[in-house]
Specification:
globular, two-stranded antiparallel ribbon, 8-stranded parallel beta barrel, alpha/beta
Length: about 300
């Protein structure tokens, strides 16, 4: 299954991290944005071109440091159809550099709509006699709080195409407690969701022992990471909240199994916006991003050994 692919890329780089690509216009270095607005004016087209240059530049700087990138669809959708075209291009560019691509889309609809999302992001679209890939992500993020109807179409594509998906379980945002920490019978809601994720993914284990459905568990809840790691031995974790949201290497160590496997830690702004701390007006954004990614990797090595 696809998490075997991700785990192998993590092992090759000895680095269980994923760089988020969440490019708001204000995150783009001024010289890149100016280059495109001088040519196209202050337009969505100029912004989309600037995002494409920035993201591809980040990929160039990070591709031999991190095993994966996670483009967040919302930041591309802000730019309309041009932004979605850029997202498609950025994902293809990342894959050409050997990176595992997690499309952060958090879809959670049902029925034929869920099937359309699954085919669009993971599978193919039939046009006459041709079956054509659209985004061709290696993995997606999903919201499973509408139940298995929201997950099954994606799981079908995962199994058929050696791909994977992360389903929200316990998220890093403060208000997650309003629902996810409620008691349901003799369990807390996030454990109910974790149990469902492992049940839905039954019989899809790969060589590394992890199922095709993983769980999103925030770095800002270290005790929950420890609890769910013990509870869900076959579930790969995507752990957001590191860096800018306050999560630390010590916080996330319990996301991993005894072999240092089974989790990948996300950082977005702390890598993308590292140039804002160097006083070079973004001219060194690639060097700054790389240094931030290497620092994160080295911080994690103090607590986690990938085998």
């Amino acid at each position: 299954m696809s998490f075997d692919v991700l785990q192998e890329k993590i092992r090759e780089k000895a680095n269980p991290t994923v760089a988020g690509l969440d490019a708001r216009v204000e995150y783009i270095p001024p010289h890149i944005l100016k280059k495109h607005t001088d040519r196209l004016g202050e337009t969505l087209e100029a912004a989309a071109e600037a995002v494409a240059e920035f993201d591809c530049g980040l990929i160039d700087a990070l591709c031999d440091v991190v095993p994966a990138v996670k483009p967040q669809a919302a930041y591309f959708e802000m730019l309309g159809w041009r932004g979605m075209k850029v997202m498609e291009d950025v994902m293809a560019y990342a894959k050409s550099k050997g990176l595992y691509v997690i499309a952060d889309i958090k879809r959670g609809d049902i029925g034929t709509t869920a099937t359309a999302y699954a085919e669009g992001w993971l599978g193919t679209t039939q046009v006459g006699n041709a079956n054509l890939s659209a985004f061709d992500a290696d993995c997606v993020t999903l919201n499973g709080y509408m139940g298995s109807d929201a997950i099954k179409p994606f799981l079908k594509e995962c199994v058929a195409r050696n791909k994977s998906a992360f389903v929200l379980a316990k998220t890093s945002n403060p208000s997650s407690v309003e629902l996810q920490d409620m008691v349901a019978g003799d369990r807390v809601v996030y454990t109910v969701m974790g149990d469902l994720i492992e049940r839905w993914g039954k019989d899809t284990e790969g060589a590394c022992g992890y199922q095709a459905l993983g769980a999103v568990v925030g770095a800002t809840h270290p005790s929950v990471l420890k609890e769910l790691r013990r509870r869900l031995p076959k579930t790969f974790f995507l752990v957001p909240g590191y860096g800018a949201q306050g999560g630390t290497a010590e916080d996330v160590r319990n996301a991993f199994d005894e072999l240092g496997r089974g989790a990948i830690i996300n950082a977005s702004r702390s890598i993308m916006c590292a140039w804002k701390k160097t006083d070079n007006n973004g001219l060194d954004y690639q060097e700054a991003a790389r240094a931030a990614a290497e620092k994160m990797r080295d911080e994690l090595k103090e607590y986690i050994t990938v085998r």
